[in-house]
Write a structure and sequence with these properties.
Strand content: 25-35%
Number of helices: 7
Number of strands: 16
Helix content: 10-25%
Order of helices and strands: EEEEEHEEEHHEHEEEEEHHEHE
Radius of gyration: 28 Å
Largest sheet: 7 strands, antiparallel
């Protein structure tokens, strides 16, 4: 929803070493059926399973394509963070795969939920700033777990990465670290969220403010946890706040346009319990 004050309203991502025992028995030969006293005793050969790949390290950078960034696993290796990359590891943790004394699979809902909860928190700590600043930025958390094969071999890590969106399904190319970028006095336009059009327009797309744009995300409308209040209530909740926020940023506080992007029921169920205020700029 966008409005022009005084003028018009616009339509609104348990291991252990496994020992394999192989017993080889030497067969006995002879017509009399008697055993050979010189025959070698049965021997046991121990074979140690191959070690799983080493766990990733925080601060590593990766040249991930968008499709890999949104996948649960990745086998792409790290590169120097001064080289072109699209993803940076902000934290590495250990999976808790034991439920009621039983091991669950690495791709189980329980394990994936653990990682999905831990990584957004790790991202805020790494990039700095506030939750509001993160929500007004193009920086997003993504996460990875070992493949089922590596998990079976003993891998028990999870990896939290940060990416910067350059569009709906495009990642920005980075050559420096994201550590602390939202904790600075002013957030760089390379990370701030802008729009190609008003948030209710058909051609609206989120882009970094360093790209060509017409609108800018300026404030966040936060809702209480709980059941979705309904579109009517979430839609009404941000009107006053967004209008005031736009007036504060406008060159003329009497003539300006503002927009409000409220959460849908689907977005709410996925964890987005906030809306965004927009203004031309």
């Amino acid at each position: 929803m966008t409005r022009r004050r005084r003028a018009r309203l616009r339509g609104g991502l348990l291991g252990s070493v496994v020992l394999v025992l192989a017993v080889t028995l030497t067969a006995c030969s002879g017509d009399d059926g008697k055993g050979d006293p010189d025959a070698a005793e049965p021997t046991a050969t121990q074979t140690v399973a191959a070690a799983p790949p080493a766990a990733p390290k925080a601060g590593a950078c990766y040249p991930l394509p968008f499709e890999t960034a949104v996948a649960p696993t990745s086998e792409i290796g790290p590169v120097a963070c001064t080289a072109g990359h699209t993803s940076e590891t902000v934290a590495v943790g250990t999976i808790n795969a034991v439920v009621d004394g039983h091991l669950v699979a690495v791709d189980s809902e329980r394990v994936q939920a653990q990682v999905a909860s831990a990584c957004p928190q790790a991202l805020i700590k790494y990039v700095g700033g506030t939750r509001e600043r993160l929500r007004l930025s193009m920086i997003r958390p993504v996460w990875f777990t070992p493949t089922v094969k590596d998990s079976d071999a003993g891998a028990e890590w999870y990896r939290c990465d940060a990416v910067v969106l350059a569009g709906t399904s495009t990642l920005a190319q980075l050559t420096t670290s994201l550590k602390g970028v939202l904790g600075k006095r002013k957030v760089s336009d390379r990370f701030a969220m802008c729009g190609t059009a008003a948030p209710d327009a058909k051609n609206f797309e989120r882009v970094p403010c360093s790209a060509r744009h017409k609108w800018r995300a300026i404030d966040v409308v936060v809702f209480d946890e709980g059941k979705y209040p309904g579109e009517k209530k979430v839609r009404a909740a941000g009107r006053g706040q967004c209008e005031d926020a736009a007036a504060d940023t406008a060159k003329d506080p009497l003539v300006f346009e503002w927009g409000y992007e409220w959460p849908t029921a689907e977005q709410w169920s996925m964890g987005q319990k906030f809306g965004r205020c927009w203004a031309i700029g």
